[in-house]
């Protein structure tokens, strides 16, 4: 079950970077945000429920090597990316076999009339790998024919085909084999400016390599920042004690979160049960149990961080909060702040913002030690 819930759990960090990562509005259509929010923030004093332990000067240790980008990392990433962009070299082979890769032209017709999407030219097909990408019989019908030959392949579209105009229809594809080719993937040393320009929109190999390296370094930096925050907060949470929860807080968080999935299910024309089964292979009962457990951990963490805010007199800065809201609105396709507040109450978003501010505070007051692979230690105060 833990593996199945991974995608859901990632969206449950309500007090993390952004609260609407799994919102129904994240597709960019702000019209779905016009409904009235069914969620109201529960007001409470966190120190009534939380006994804080040590939270300033928290010391953690990270492996320095985990956040370094080596030449080998860059090469591995490039060789992974080029797997989506094969090169084809013409051969002198004449007859198509089960493991051949071919270049073909084809025209598809139903009742003698060509149909939309049924015609292509200069198309590469890997006989061994591409059968499932085409209608049954389309790829296998090429086997045994020769380069330069034009022939017909008869197929039937599945009854459940995505296009209703084609579903269940018999079709004839007239094909011409232009060549049998060799498919290959360049190594980093074999990259050319032409290949990079055609497939990755960079003028030169050097520009492409620099871009990959920069992207990996950015990702490593983000991972480092997130790991520091997670480890610091995890330590603070383990140092604190939570004696209870405000009435209705956990229930409200669970209900709000579940409502997002109900909205997504509705957008796809499913019931929640159907959506969960199709997307995650789980029942609604399993989902309810999993999110209640995970949300309880989130709420306890929220309460502890709010207790720190009360202790340190950290409050919502209006200018900072407005910038935070503007970022959410622009990043997730809301029409404006009011559309966001229609889905999540303003008080709730302020609560999220405040907790994020406390995260920054405790990280700024933490000490991060780095170990290297040869066990030499370096220390850095954050």
Walk me through what this model shows:
- With 382 residues, this protein is of the alpha+beta class.
- The chain is built from 10 helices and 10 strands.
- The strands form 3 sheets. Strands 3, 4, 5, 6 and 7 form a 5-stranded antiparallel beta sheet that branches.
- A hairpin with a 5-residue loop joins strand 9 (367-371) and strand 10 (377-381).
- The chain is elongated and about 80 Å long.
- The two termini are 37 Å apart.
Describe, in short, the structure shown.
This protein is α+β, with helices and mostly antiparallel strands.
Layout of secondary structure:
Elements: H1 6-10, E1 50-51, E2 59-63, H2 71-81, E3 87-90, E4 101-110, E5 113-126, E6 150-156, E7 170-184, H3 193-200, H4 205-239, E8 241-242, H5 249-267, H6 272-280, H7 284-312, H8 318-331, H9 337-343, H10 346-364, E9 367-371, E10 377-381
Parallel strand pairs: 2-9
Antiparallel strand pairs: 1-8, 3-7, 4-5, 4-7, 6-7, 9-10
């Amino acid at each position: 079950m833990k593996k199945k819930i991974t995608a859901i759990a990632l969206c449950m960090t309500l007090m993390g970077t952004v609260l609407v990562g799994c919102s129904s509005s994240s597709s960019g259509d702000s019209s779905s945000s016009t409904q009235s929010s069914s969620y109201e923030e529960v007001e409470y004093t966190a120190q009534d429920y939380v006994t804080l332990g040590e939270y300033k000067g928290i010391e953690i240790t990270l492996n320095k090597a985990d956040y370094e980008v080596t030449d080998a990392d860059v090469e591995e990433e490039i060789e992974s990316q080029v797997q989506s962009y094969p090169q084809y070299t013409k051969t002198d082979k004449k007859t198509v076999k089960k493991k051949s890769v071919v270049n073909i032209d084809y025209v598809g017709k139903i009742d003698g009339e060509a149909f939309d999407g049924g015609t292509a030219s200069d198309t590469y097909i890997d006989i061994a790998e591409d059968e499932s990408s085409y209608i049954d019989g389309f790829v296998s019908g090429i086997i045994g024919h020769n380069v330069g030959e034009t022939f017909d392949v008869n197929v039937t579209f599945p009854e459940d085909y995505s296009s209703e105009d084609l579903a269940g229809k018999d079709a004839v594809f007239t094909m011409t084999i232009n060549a049998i080719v060799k498919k290959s993937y360049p190594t980093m040393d074999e990259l050319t400016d032409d290949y990079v320009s055609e497939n990755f929109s960079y003028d030169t190999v050097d520009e492409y390599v620099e871009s990959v390296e920069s992207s990996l370094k950015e990702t490593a930096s983000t991972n480092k920042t997130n790991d520091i925050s997670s480890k610091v907060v995890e330590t603070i949470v383990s140092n604190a004690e939570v004696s209870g929860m405000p009435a209705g807080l956990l229930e409200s968080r669970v209900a709000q979160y579940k409502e997002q999935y109900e909205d997504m299910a509705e957008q796809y024309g499913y019931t929640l049960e159907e959506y969960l089964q199709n997307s995650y292979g789980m029942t609604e009962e399993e989902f309810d149990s999993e999110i209640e457990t995970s949300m309880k951990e989130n709420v306890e963490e929220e309460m502890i961080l709010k207790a720190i805010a009360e202790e340190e007199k950290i409050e919502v800065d209006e200018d900072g909060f407005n910038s935070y809201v503007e970022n959410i609105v622009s990043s997730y396709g809301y029409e404006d702040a009011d559309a966001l507040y229609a889905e999540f109450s303003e008080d709730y978003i302020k609560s999220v913002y405040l907790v994020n501010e406390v995260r920054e505070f405790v990280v700024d007051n933490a000490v991060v030690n780095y170990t290297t692979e040869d066990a030499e230690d370096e220390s850095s105060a954050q």
